[in-house]
Task: inverse folding
């Protein structure tokens, strides 16, 4: 079960949350051996963080740094990724192996899903591969030394955008991992306080990113301007084993 | 942010779901460079799967293969892990670096949490480290080419033991990842059918384990005796972006 790049195949590869040693051996090998590397970055960032993480494994391959719009618009998003697919397809048809590197895991709140969708319309499924990566939630839990799930626990992973949905999930999960906290932090903090869960909450900003990471065990210490790269973990008591 | 083993430190390291190339560079480095490797296996298995995954990185270190009881009894479980901690502590005190390898991620339904708890009573937190690993859920989603979360989606991870809780979670998640399916499969299948979700469900048994992996896109094809190493993914329609 060791994955080697094949001619004309596409690989969506997660490179983890930020540290260059938190990528898998499989991801490193594929990046090193593929002919073409696609490294998307949002129009809000100056550089591709995925490309920085993978830097040690890029040795003269063709690299496309594709700027995509970070907008809440299905049509614009799909159109942007269809363009990337148009760039990739002739390379696959010419027998090249192509790897797309993406932050975290390609199947957890990742743009890879759009590119895979665009490619799936024109590439046979046997030629499309996905390599999982360490997600920010896992790295945050490891940094805090906080179990995500034990025994019968339920873990819910969701964005912090809809606080009614967050409130509901808090009642029905032992652990909650919230993404895309950003500007919603003050309201989230109030919700956690009202439920008596502030003491069980932690925030990780840019976890495992050299020079940027900030870890907070008290959400009252967090400046609300920290933004998008924040994940909040809420860890309530464990459910006991069912007898 | 590259982690190197230090004298007298303990590392709980996830080695991923089964393939030797799905471990991180950090995990591989720590296993190679630590003085002592602890590889627990349950009293239901013939060998430590974690040890097989990590085999290429073990080169003459001291190895403890610790058999632990797989029982639903808090006291027995904690006592078994206190014994392992007793074995580890003098080694840490003698300045050795110790790595515990564990299947998947050390913080997702893993026995590492118990060992960390036992060690935390007698070792300072700066000497305890956790390295995340690829979980079975992530590897299963990658094998099926199935996004776990997009946009505003909620993902719930839980055991399949309590079907009332599963039913509730199905109503409030776009994706559900169920662990510990085992003998409960027939009842789970009925629940999914009654909710019209059988077509959205997939089962991965021993994902990424050479010679053992079985992937099912139709749960009716699954023999109920497959057991413990099964994960079920239920992937409903996506929530749209909130306007």
Result:
């Amino acid at each position: 079960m060791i994955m080697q790049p094949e001619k004309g195949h596409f690989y969506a590869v997660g490179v983890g949350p930020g540290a260059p040693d938190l990528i898998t051996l499989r991801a490193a090998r594929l990046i090193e051996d593929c002919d073409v590397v696609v490294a998307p970055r949002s129009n809000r960032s100056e550089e591709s963080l995925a490309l920085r993480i993978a830097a040690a494994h890029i040795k003269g391959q063709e690299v496309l740094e594709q700027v995509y719009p970070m907008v809440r618009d299905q049509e614009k998003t799909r159109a942007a990724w269809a363009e990337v697919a148009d760039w990739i397809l002739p390379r696959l048809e010419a027998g090249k192996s192509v790897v797309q590197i993406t932050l975290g895991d390609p199947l957890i709140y990742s743009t890879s899903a759009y590119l895979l969708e665009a490619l799936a319309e024109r590439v046979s499924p046997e030629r499309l591969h996905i390599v999982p990566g360490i997600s920010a939630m896992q790295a945050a839990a490891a940094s805090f030394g906080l179990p995500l799930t034990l025994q019968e626990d339920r873990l819910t992973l969701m964005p912090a955008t809809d606080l009614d949905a967050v409130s509901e999930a808090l009642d029905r999960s032992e652990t909650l991992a919230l993404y895309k906290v950003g500007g919603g932090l003050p309201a989230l903090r109030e919700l956690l306080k009202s439920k008596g869960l502030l003491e069980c909450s932690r925030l990780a900003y840019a976890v495992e990113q050299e020079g940027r990471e900030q870890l907070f065990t008290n959400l009252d210490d967090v400046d609300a301007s920290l933004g998008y790269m924040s994940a909040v973990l809420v860890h309530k008591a464990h459910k006991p084993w069912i007898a």
Summary: Residues 41 and 67 of chain B are 5 Å apart (CA to CA). Chain B has two domains: 10-131, 136-235. Chain B touches chain A through 70 residues (CB under 8 Å). The domain at 10-131 of chain B is CATH 3.40.1010.10 (Cobalt-precorrin-4 Transmethylase; domain 1).
